[in-house]
Structure formats: C-alpha cells, structure tokens
What we know:
Helices cover 75% and strands 3% of the residues. The protein has helices at residues 26-53, 60-88, 96-129, 134-137, 140-166, 183-187, 195-229, 233-262, 270-294, 297-315, and strands at residues 13-16, 93-95, 175-176. The chain contains ten helices and three strands. The radius of gyration is 22 Å and the shape is globular.
Amino acid sequence: MALNGRNQSSVTTFILLGFSEYPQLQEPLFLAFLVVYMVTVVGNLGIIVVTRINPKLHTPMYFFLSHLSFLDICYSTVFTPKLLEILVVDVRSISFKGCIVQFFFICAFVITEMFMLAVMAYDRFVAVCNPLLYTVVMSRKLCALLVAATYTWGGLCSLTLTYSLAELSYCGSNIINHFGCEYSAVLSLSCSDTRFSQMACLIISTFNETSSLLIILTSYLFIVVTIVKMPSSGGLRKAFSTCASHLTAITIFHGAILLLYCVPNSKNSWLLIKVTTVFFTVMIPMLNPLIYSLRNKDVKETVKKLMVTKLLLHAK
C-alpha cells in the first residue's frame, strides 16, 4: 500500500498483540477498562457541563479546565475502544491507514494537553502573583489565543511525526507488540532507514517536554516566592488550594511521560511500556476530573445542586 509514490509499503494491516500473552486476563481487563472509560467520559463531560452552567465558573481557569477535559475525552477515545476490541476478538488487526490516523490523533491530543497544562500553570501564576490585574491580563481574547496556540502546535508536531512514519516502508513483520500504534512500536517494523524519524521524534519530544516543564516550573517558582511573602495564613491557604489540583494533575501526567522516556526500548521492557501506556492513555483521563472536582468547592456545590434538582424532578 502506498500513501504516495515514494512509499513502497507492502504491509496493509498490522496485528496488535495487546495483552494476548495473558489470555486469562482478557475478560477482567476488558471489564476494568470499560468501566474506567465510562467513568472518564462521564466525569470529563460532567466537568464541561458544570463549568458551562455555573456563572461562578466562567473564569479563565475553568475555561482551560473544560478544554483539558475535552482533550482527556479525545485521547482516551482514540486508544481505549481499540484496546477493548482487541481484548475480546480473535483477529486483533488494524489497517495501515487506521494505524497512521490513530497515531496522528493520539500524538496531537497528548502534545496539546501537555501545553494546556503549561497554560494553566501560567494562569495560576497570574492569579496568585497579580490578583488585582488577573481579569485584565487573562482576557477572553488572550485565553482564546492561548488555547488556539496549544491545539495548533499539537497538530503541527503530530503532523510532522505522522509524516515521518507514513513515509517509511513496511515490508517485513506486521506484528505490533502493543495495544495501539505507539511510535517506537510501529517504527521498529520498518524495513527502511529510520534515522530521520528517530531524530524528528527525539527533537520534538525533548523540545515539547522541556519547554512545557520550563513554563510550569518558572510559573510555580514565582508562585512559591509570592506565597512565602504572604503575611497571613489565610492567603497562604487560599493560594495553595488554588494550585493543589493543578500540581497533582501535572505530576501524574509528566511523571507518566518521563517514565516512558526512561524505560529502555527492549523486549524485556515491553510489558512495562504497555502498562505505563495504559496508565497514561486510560487512567489519567479518568483521574483529572476526580482531582479537580474533589478539591474544588465550586464544582462540588454545582454537582450537588444538579443532583438535588434531578432528584426533585424525579420525585414530582
């Protein structure tokens, strides 16, 4: 199959091994991942709805949070349904085009979320360090531009990496030792020179991880300095409460990414890579709404009001 004249790939279908080496775990894993996916979709949709209907939550922080929830739904949906499918079917296949498309979207959404978390860190910096100018600095126009920039950058990076994969030839084995089209797993099947693809992946991954973490660390460095200078314990507590949920989400997200970077790409480590990828693509999207809702008074109050209203309507 060829995407263009230069691509002489003969492989038209890939076989996803998933967790086939553990046949006794297929059904329990299917049920567990199905429940997690349902909670992910409901939880993140809930965050989006709550931030829309409560006027108190019409602020830059919740505007960014609603986009974070949207991204969680998106990149979980790109991976999880295929993961569920290969856990219950005998033929665990995905077409070459389907594989390339899956990789493009998962890569775009993950990079976009990476910088969305960085934008949220900048938002917290302005809120804590310049509270009187917060509404002026974080205007609707700036918020919209920041969100548009994260989506655009995520798409451009993903397009570059996807092109580097699609241009390679795949004429040997078509077995992917993964449950999805992860970059290194697909790259390992190529029978052409992969040096450009590897270099592109290294440069883009390193730049994105370093720059996003630099924005986050710089923002929180200024936040810590400001908090230390606060005279009252009440202000200190409020500032910490404002940042705690975001810090938790950042730690989990970047911790999983750094763990994937640190795992050696060898046969002995593929199980760890798959388990870490499951945590990254399936579990983290479920955890984010829980982290933000459990630690946020306004979100919890809105959810309670919605539940009470629904119960009263059913009672009538």
